[in-house]
Write a structure and sequence with these properties.
Strand content: over 45%
Structural class: mainly beta
Radius of gyration: 13 Å
Number of strands: 11
Shape: globular
Number of helices: 0
Length: about 130
């Protein structure tokens, strides 16, 4: 059973930057592909970014070029560096994990991830 704990959320002005971190425990981190999702008030949870076991990355079009996902297998963490933030990036951000036999597949649907963190709030003011 994998436990995920997000941190790093907060309030930032439009155009600013923020880095989210997700610490994993309870499993062999390097065996999992990892993802970030977000949910804004009144909206469904949406995919943001994912990284495979082999560190192949995939991004939603809305964040491509602004967000960077990375993983550190030695520290059992996955980070989401966010820059050029916009008010529409305001949401609760969730870290997700799924055991994977593939080194290249990232996944992008929430149904493809079994383990979830509790979420961290990101608010971007205009």
């Amino acid at each position: 059973q994998v436990q995920l704990v997000e941190s790093g959320g907060g309030l930032v002005q439009a155009g600013g930057s923020l880095t989210l971190s997700c610490a994993a425990s309870g499993g062999t981190f390097s065996n999992y592909r990892m993802g970030w999702f977000r949910q804004a008030p009144g909206k469904e949870r949406e995919f943001v970014a994912a990284i495979s076991r082999g560190s192949i990355t995939y991004y939603a079009d809305s964040v491509k070029g602004r967000f960077t996902i990375s993983r550190d297998n030695a520290k059992n963490t996955v980070n989401l560096q966010m820059s050029s933030l916009k008010p529409e990036d305001t949401a609760v951000y969730y870290c997700a994990a799924q055991y994977s036999s593939s080194y290249s597949y990232t996944g992008r649907a929430s149904s493809e991830f079994n383990y979830w963190g509790q979420g961290t709030q990101v608010t971007v003011s205009s």
